[in-house]
Amino acid sequence: MIVWLNGASGAGKSTAARHLLDLLPGSTLYDPELVGSELRLMLPAARLAQVGDYQDLPSWRRLVVDTAAALLNEVPGPLVTPMPLLRQEYRDEIFGGLASRRVPVRHVLLHAEETILRERADRRAGRAGGAPAQGRCRAHLEAYEDALGWLKQDAHVIDTARLTPRETAERIAEAVHAGAGACDIVQTPEPTAETLAAGVLLFDDADRVLLVDPTYKPGWEFPGGVVEPGEPPARAGLREVTEELGIRLHSAPRLLVLDWEPPKPPGFGGLRMLFDGGRLAGEQIRDLLLPGPELRDWRFATEAEAADMLPPVRWNRLRWALRAREQGRPLNLEAGVPVE
Q1: How many CB atoms lie within 10 A of CB 31?
Q2: What crossing angle do the helices spanning 33-42 and 58-71 adopt, rounded to 10°?
Q3: Angle in degrees, CA 21, 25, 30, rounded to 5
Q4: pTM
């Protein structure tokens, strides 16, 4: 298990984490900032100049998960991790990766009011070197305020304003023992070879496409998933739509796109298929259901809106699928480019 202590700078994560080690037998401090420090030493300056923070590096997010899993093979656990994680897509990627490795997460938010956090940040900035450090601290606090909406829904919140570090650690230990902060994320196993996946495009009466927001990976997605061994792809798409949204489609969906995705380490690639599930009736849209451990939201989007919501590979696949729907014929893609 990993106990992830989230929160703004000045919330008391690091000091509480040290006390927490005494209260959780077998626990080990795991600081992902060390992973970022090592990457700074190894990556070229030109690459580092492209990101504002080491958390923006895909390699950091991947290594945070891999290192946690490796540590838990060496120590009994839990791992205590004091680390701000303020971008929801990074939370999805890291917590989803941990779930795929069967590592349970307890997500605890250490919170204090903005005025208290600003006072602590100003004191810390003064010790760290004046105006530049103060600017970084304030930018961090603004990012924290922007993230509070989803953080309070996702994590178990402990207000640290009137607590000593020891008292904060005791509250965390009580919450962990009670199962609070558990992130019930779908455990999608890491692929070990090429995979075949089937997605289904569903539309409203304005021809907007239905997109869903997974809890276990960054970015929006189409309803669908990996085809099980021996399962027909179109039937897999129907099954996933029923499991994910509670919708039963009574006719086989029409193939729009077959796209070969090349391997890109650590991914193995494989075949990706998109089917046309047709328009949903008003009552079907009204009765849409979301499985909490897998999806947090859904919405209909125009093609232009989808371009801002989907990761580039999925957006390109959707773009060609919409062209195939207009033309009334399926398209065969390789690495996102039509073969014809």
Answers
A1: 15
A2: 130
A3: 45
A4: 0.84
